[in-house]
Amino acid sequence: MKNFSFEKVKYYSFEFLEKGEPEFIDFLHRMEKESEYQEDMDNLMVWLEEIGKYYGAKQKFFRPEGYISDTTALPPPGRIMVSHNIPVRNIRLYCMRLSEHIVILFNGGIKTTEKAQDCRNVSGYFKQANRLVKKIDQLIREHEIQLNQNQTELSFQDNLIIEI
After folding, report:
1. What's the pTM?
2. Total domain count, the chain
3. Containing structural domain, residue 139
4. Which of 2, 5, 18, 62 matches a 20 to 30 Å C-alpha distance to 54?
């Protein structure tokens, strides 16, 4: 897992061996090619920074997604986007909020249907996020991944390999 940090939140992302780059970076590279969504991507990045610098990863900023309660997505729910005037329309970035200080970013894309599992653009990333959330929960229970006492840091072996 790779990470990048702000004052209040440390974001992590997985790197699949066959890809050679973290999932969040893959998401950014793919979305770069979608020029019509550039403003939405810019605003999504503003959300990551705002949450990371000023607010912390409060639950209200993450939309519940899927059939596993710990799988969430950004951008925040519509009412939060409206109140902060930082709109993002159809982009979804799947993630797992472990605490107000730790978020694991997965992957995502342009969501074109009401349900993620019905969208050909994001259904694979959505299903992958759900599998990863299950596995991360298991590894936390087994102490392979640990949160420190303040829930501000994750610890794990550098060579941790997660099979899903």
Report:
1. 0.93
2. 1
3. 2-155
4. 2
